[in-house]
Amino acid sequence: MMDGPYVVPTVLGVLGTGLVAGAFCAFSTFVMRGLAALPPAQGVAAMRSVDVAAVRAPFMLVFLGSALLCAAIAVVTLVTGPDEGAAWLPAGSTLYLFGGFGVTVVANVPRNNALAGLDPCTARAAAYGTAYVREWTRWNHVRTVASTGAAVAYVPALT
Q: Transmembrane stretches, by residue range (predicted)?
């Protein structure tokens, strides 16, 4: 069993990355399908509303807090030279930082920003909405798998 300074951050890492993975999984498995089933103007308006609601303290605390925690875990682990079991820590951190957080920044947020600039009632919004759902969901699958992998990678470090 792991002991010392890694236990609490690692448990928090499992919880944070797991919670984010769950949110991403919900979008990949049913939220985006539900939005795509709406008439285009309603789907675009609904997703714009979701995007605004997501950038609030409850989700951002978990999402950004997990990124900061993962970065700290990676740095501390690499600097202090981890025990054998803690070798999983940099792997979990890398998965979340690049696959969960990084993909959000470079793939999902730009699509959200483009959607936010459209009037939902226009043909342009309807056309963009179809491609948006497909592309956004594809990248969201990556975020889901990476965030889940991060949580899973942290667990062996605890044993």
A: 6-32, 53-79, 85-107
Tell me the one-letter amino acid at 7.
V
Record the tokens describing residue 3, joined without a space. Answer: 């002991």
For the stretch 60-95, pLDDT in tens is: 999 999 999 999 999 988 888 767 667 899 999 999
Report domain extents, the chain.
4-158
